Amino acid sequence: MESTLYGFSKNNFKKFSKKLAVCHFPNGIGSEGENHPAFLSARKGVNSVELTSSQMETISYQFESFGKKVIREHYRDLMRKMCRQSENEIAFSELTEREMDSLFAVDDYPAEHFHFYVDGEDVVITDERLYNALSDLPSKRRDILLMAVCFEQSDAKIAKKLNMVRSTVQNQRTSSLAKLITMMGG
Question: What is the pLDDT confidence band of residue 68, given thresholds at 50, 70 and 90?
Fold first, then answer.
């Protein structure tokens, strides 16, 4: 059985290196190397160099040596990379139960969502009791309260949007909030 190096047997590697030498150092034997445009432009004004079989064999061995060095260094790079990764990684089986629990989060989606549209924006209420209490308020008071609480707008800004006096907005906001608190049970 022939020894292999990354899928190349020794004989295949030598054949490959000889073919490569013929391409790069045409000696009249292989026509594909001679007719390659890069070699034609390189040979302008240069006499064809004839290589002897020992020179071809030397080139073949040099290429084989170079190929082995490249493969060896690539292997070493991969090993270094794997060592660096192993320093920063840990197997799931080695994690404690507490560490495993910290690796994920569970989203809790309520069964129902309730919506109010205030100032062109959608306000989502997830508590049914709060939705019912807000629904019992008059729409203008509910809008003032939601703009102040959800959108964090000042009384002056709300008054300007609703064409009201600032003190009226403040009175309606505070009284609506007090009513809402009593409706929800304090």
Answer: very high
